[in-house]
Amino acid sequence: MSDGGVSVATGEIIDPPAEVLAEAAAVFTLLSSPSRLHIVWALAQGECDVTGLAERVGGALPAVSQHLAKLKLAGLVQSRREGRRVIYLIDDDDIVATVHGLVGRLSERAGRSGERGRGLGA
C-alpha cells in the first residue's frame, strides 16, 4: 500500500507512473495562466456564475467562458444549471487545498516582505 509516494510496508519512496506525472504537468500548465488561477481561486472560495467570475477577476465574459471550458474539460471545475444560469464550482477538496495553500502562502510572504514573487518569474 502507498501513502503519498511512500510504501507503508517498506518505507521506500515510490515514483508515480509517467502517465500521472504527465497529467499533473497538464494541470499545472492550465493553472500557470494567472487568469485561470484567479478563476480557480475565486471558485475555491465558493461557487459562482460566469458573469460574477468575470466581474471578480476583471476579465471579459467570452475569455472567462473559454477559461472555464478548459478548466471543466480538465476536470478541475464542474458546473450545474440553475434555470438559465450555469453555476461553476470546484468539487475537489484537494484542488481547493492546493490552491489555498500555494496562493495563500505566497500572499502571506508578499505581505510580510512587501515583495511579490521574488525570483519566481520566468
Key words describing this protein structure:
122 residues; alpha+beta; 3-stranded antiparallel beta sheet; two-stranded antiparallel ribbon; 5 helices; 5 strands
The termini sit apart by: 38 Å
Order of helices and strands: EEHHEHHEEH
Number of strands: 5
Supply the number of helical segments. Answer: 5
| Class from secondary-structure proportions | alpha+beta
Give a brief rundown of this model:
The protein has 122 residues and is of the alpha+beta class. Helices cover 56% and strands 13% of the residues. The protein has a three-stranded antiparallel β-sheet. Strands 1-2 form a two-stranded antiparallel sheet.
Textual characterization of the structure:
- The protein is α+β, with helices and mostly antiparallel strands and 122 residues long.
- It has five helices and five strands.
- The strands form two sheets. A three-stranded antiparallel sheet has the order 3-5-4. A two-stranded antiparallel sheet has the order 1-2.
- A hairpin with a 2-residue loop joins strand 1 and strand 2.
